[in-house]
Amino acid sequence: MTDTRSSEVGIDENVLAKLPEGVKVLSVSPSGASAWVQTGAIGDRGREMMRGTFHSEETLYAFAPNNVPKPLAWGSYKQEPDSHFYMCDFYDMTDDLPDIARFCTVVAKMHLDSMGKSPNGQYGFPVTTHLAYVDNDNSWSDSWEEWYARALKRMLQEEEKSHGPDDELKELTNAMFEKVIPRLLRPLETGGRQIKPCLIHSDLWPGNVKPDAETDEPIIFDSCAFWGHNE
């Protein structure tokens, strides 16, 4: 097939280079809205965000190809190396809530189909992902209790950095790590019991799942995937 990609519509060369063969760009216009994203140049953090998004969505797509937009590419602009992009298939979605039964079926199937298929049998993820601008600590761990505690500590560190120390929060945090987490999570993997990591979206809320405008099928996106406990 002849490559009919065109650079006449103001798209960066590196973005055009990632488009599928035979695609011709006729126009570019805004589509949809975001509760937290706007275009900007944010250097290495932005590049890591796009890298994490691509690998996160790619992994989810492997287990839910009918409900996750297919990731196509990620990279940096040629003309603006500090600006970065992520590219995936386009879905026309409504702004309604998805059918609850269909949505829960999709998520449960993804958990079941991915159960025990972590690439190394551990909890975590091979690349850094981000909740908005906050980078997650996805370091691999053999223990769900250990991984969960470390991930939560990372979020609390960001909270303190943004808002300063808080004595009441510090007291609650100590109780969380010393009592709550060990009492709730440790029994899952002691006394002969075990759990198998499955793939988790980790940022499912009404803004990240919408019905397909044609089929009404739930479309899931903007994941911060990791291998963890399905609950």
What's the helix count? 5
Q: Give the end-to-end Cα distance, rounded to a whole number of Å.
A: 46 Å
Structural class: alpha+beta
User: In angstroms, what is the radius of gyration?
Assistant: 20 Å
Tell me the overall shape: globular
| Oligomer status | single chain
Q: Could you list the spans in which at least 5 consecutive residues all have pLDDT below 50?
A: 1-9, 38-42
Tally of DSSP β-strands: 8
Major sheet: arrangement of strands: 1-2
How much helicity do the residues have?
25-40%
The overall average pLDDT, rounded, is 88
| Percent strand | 5-15%
- SSE run: HHEEHEEHHEEEE
Major sheet: 2 strands, antiparallel
